[in-house]
Amino acid sequence: MILRVNTDMAAGGFGLSFAALLWLGGTDIGRLSILFPRAILVILVAFSLLLFVKGFFRPGQRSIEISGSPWRLLVLILLLLAWWFAIGKVGFVVSSFLTMLFITWFLARVEGPVSLKRLLLWTPIIAVMVGGFYSIFTQVLNVRLPSGLLF
Predict the structure, then answer these.
(1) Are 72 and 130 in contact (CB under 8 A)?
(2) CB atoms within 10 A of CB 25
């Protein structure tokens, strides 16, 4: 599928949407803690508006080819959306592990059927990846991740 896209308007619209999502989500942060993120959001909105307005006068047209199955793309988008909701319910570790395992299985099916042996081979690798992300966020970056069933 080939799409002709005004990339300036698309990037500006994405930036404005992202900024609105972050702005609405930051209501329970202290007054001094919010100064730097708000400054970044204001800069993001300013640049996004400039890109969006530029798209009207000097659009950056580009043809984008989306290869592969649109069905797979839709399934992955819905899966990542479900993961986003599941993090709050079952926690980061469990939801991330299950999501990564499903994504790996789902994308490997393109080559053919996936055996149980192959899936069991990927399980410790995915566990190390999720554990690594969890450790980096909680120990190095001091970010509290949502807890759930196990962590």
Answers:
(1) no
(2) 9
150, 93 contact by CB (below 8 A) = yes
**pLDDT tens figures, 73-131:** 889 999 999 998 888 888 888 999 999 999 999 988 888 888 889 889 999 999 999 99
Q: What is the pLDDT of residues 19-72, one digit of tens each?
A: 888 777 655 665 555 566 777 888 999 999 998 888 888 877 776 676 777 788
Identify which of 74, 58, 78, 55 has the alpha carbon closest to the alpha carbon of residue 66. Answer: 74
pTM for this entry: 0.62
Please, how many CA atoms are within 13 Å of residue 148, restricted to the half-sphere of its CB?
Answer: 16
DSSP output for 109-136? TTTS---HHHHHHHHHHHHHHHHHHHHI
Task: Compute the distance between CA of residue 50 and CA of residue 15 in angstroms, rounded to an integer.
Answer: 11
User: What residues form DSSP beta bridges with 6?
Assistant: 61
Token pair 């395992």 is at which residue? 101
